[in-house]
Design a protein that fits this description.
By secondary structure, this protein is α+β, with helices and mostly antiparallel strands. Helices cover 51% and strands 14% of the residues. The chain contains 18 helices and eleven strands. It is a multi-pass membrane protein.
Length: 539
């Protein structure tokens, strides 16, 4: 053993002089008594770029004493950047006692940092110092700081003033907040630019094809592409800011949520535009003259589109919720008890599921379609809207009748346009027995041909005597129209014109007939003097 080492041993403990001999005495606020105190104190001092406190938490014994003060602060800055970027210390798992049992009596592993050569342990070590043992970052950890910083840090961080490394809010430093703002603005601008370029290039490519589906897809993507691109750019750009794991996870969560919502909106828009495009395409084709087929297709598209929309919303909501660990744990628990949970959900949602299946069945069987004329609940109207749970009937006086969709499958109703919108209408009149029926029939023909104003379709017209009573006979005028609305107006017109015609006839409207018959008087012998006197006076 060299003589000078004997002198040091005689003067005091080796550790008292070997630990950071080139640094001034530690300030009173430097607490290195436990691993928890050392970890917390180092993070606070290093984030504040405190050159008096931060180096004391490192074992700088491998550095020359004359460079320990300057190099110690630089190493502390680099180490805190590496820790913020790669680890998030869980203080609940760090020792709170000056010395722990077994191996933890002198060594505490905070975690590992991945490197190209393999994982590097970040270790706190209990060493002897003046005043007693203290906990500091081990010499091996300090020796690996430069290598770790080359992989997980940036030289730019050492050029910024200390003011940029303060933490004004949450776990992010000032330079990270500024960088995040720049990333957000840049991602939004680049997202809009990328969307414009994509739509322009896509429009030129779509112009070379005869199919209209690519045009509808581009139109649906307008407004959604920018959010998808912006979300991806934010997630990628945030990685250059060396954010702490909680902050990086929050940014990634927000970016993924924006992308999921944007994709879901794109799918919903495309479904709406695709349904409208398909309706227009069928309407312009030779099959478009078949009104029943067009209505059936419109009904099927409306119901199936709503089914797919519900599925898209559910999938998007599930993807959003599954990003949270608590929801994932609940999902695992539900899967573990899938039998009981499935039975409970099935019983609870029995009514909702039956309604959903009723809507799907309605789209396939089509007992009624959008635009059909129906009579239900003693109301006459048109099918205006069909959803997965209810049907809206537009009544003739513009009221809306909302009926559960299951009622159309469980109860009878009248559909006046099931096969075709063409319909027959009647106008009934009560006339006198001496009315000239052939003349009324001729007048009906004249009204339909000259005064129907396009309401009559020219197919059916007739007049018949359908009933007799002791005073009148009933005439029924039968006419046809293209749909129920025109049929109602035509019936009112025919009724009005025929009544006006009958008023002008001498025997058109019913007459009330009465017959007077003289009654024989009783025998004079049976008549009293008072009755004879009254009779003589009346005569």
């Amino acid at each position: 053993m060299p003589p000078w080492l004997w002198v040091l041993l005689l003067l005091g403990p080796v550790g008292a002089f070997a630990l950071n001999a080139g640094l001034p005495p530690p300030p009173p606020e430097v607490d290195r008594s436990t691993p928890t105190a050392t970890a917390a104190g180092f993070l606070d001092a290093a984030h504040a770029r405190d050159g008096l406190r931060a180096p004391h938490y490192l074992d700088l014994s491998r550095l020359p004493p004359e460079t320990q003060a300057e190099e110690g602060l630089a190493l502390a800055r680099r180490l805190v950047v590496v820790l913020d970027r790669t680890m998030w210390l869980d203080f609940a798992r760090i020792g709170r006692e000056p010395a722990g049992p077994g191996e933890r009596a002198r060594r505490e592993v905070l975690g590992q940092v991945a490197t190209a050569r393999g994982p590097q342990d970040i270790v706190l070590e209990r060493v002897d110092a003046e005043g007693g043992p203290v906990w500091v970052f081990s010499a091996d950890t300090v020796g690996a700081i430069d290598t770790l910083f080359q992989e997980h840090g940036s030289p730019l961080l050492e050029m910024l003033p200390p003011v940029f490394f303060t933490r004004p809010l949450w776990v992010l430093e000032t330079w990270q907040w500024l960088g995040l703002a720049v990333v957000l603005v840049g991602a939004w601008a680049l997202g809009r630019l990328g969307e414009a370029v994509t739509l322009r290039v896509g429009a030129r490519a779509a112009g070379l094809t005869k199919s209209g589906w690519d045009d509808e897809m581009l139109a649906a993507g307008k407004g959604s592409i920018r959010f998808v691109l912006a979300g991806m750019l934010v997630a990628a750009g945030a990685r250059f800011l060396k954010l702490p794991p909680p902050a990086q996870e929050t940014v990634d969560l927000a970016a993924r949520s924006v992308v999921i919502v944007a994709v879901a909106l794109f799918v919903l828009r495309f479904l709406t535009r695709a349904a409208r495009f398909l309706e227009d395409k069928v309407a312009k084709s030779p099959e478009g003259t078949d009104v029943a087929r067009v209505r059936g297709l419109r009904t099927q598209l409306a119901i199936l589109r709503r089914v797919v929309e519900v599925a898209v919303v559910l999938v998007a909501a599930s993807l959003l919720l599954l990003q949270f660990e608590a929801v994932r744990n609940v999902g695992v628990s539900l899967l573990a008890s899938a039998g009981i949970a499935g039975l409970a959900i099935g019983l609870a949602a029995q009514k909702s599921l039956s309604t959903l299946f009723a809507g799907i069945q309605l789209s396939i069987t089509q007992p009624m379609r959008i635009g059909d004329t129906v009579i239900i609940e003693n109301e006459w109207g048109w099918i205006e809207e069909i959803t997965l749970t209810y049907v809206v009937v537009k009544v003739w006086d513009l009221r809306r009748l909302v009926i559960p969709i299951t009622q159309f499958l469980e109860k009878p109703f009248q559909n006046w346009s099931k096969v075709s919108p063409e319909i027959l209408g009647t106008a009934e009149l009560y006339v006198d027995f001496r009315t000239d029926v052939p003349a009324v029939r001729a007048e009906l023909k004249r009204i339909l041909e000259q005064e129907s104003k396009g309401l009559w379709d020219g197919k059916v017209q007739g007049l018949q005597v359908t009933d007799l009573s002791e005073r009148t006979m009933k005439l029924r005028a039968l006419v046809s129209a293209a749909d129920s609305g025109k049929a109602f107006d035509l019936r009112c017109l025919v009724r009005e014109k025929l009544v006006a015609y009958l008023q002008a006839q001498p025997h058109g409207l019913p007459l009330l007939r009465a017959e007077a018959t003289p009654l024989p008087l009783p025998e004079e012998k049976a008549v009293g003097p008072a009755l004879l006197a009254a009779r003589a006076g009346n005569t």
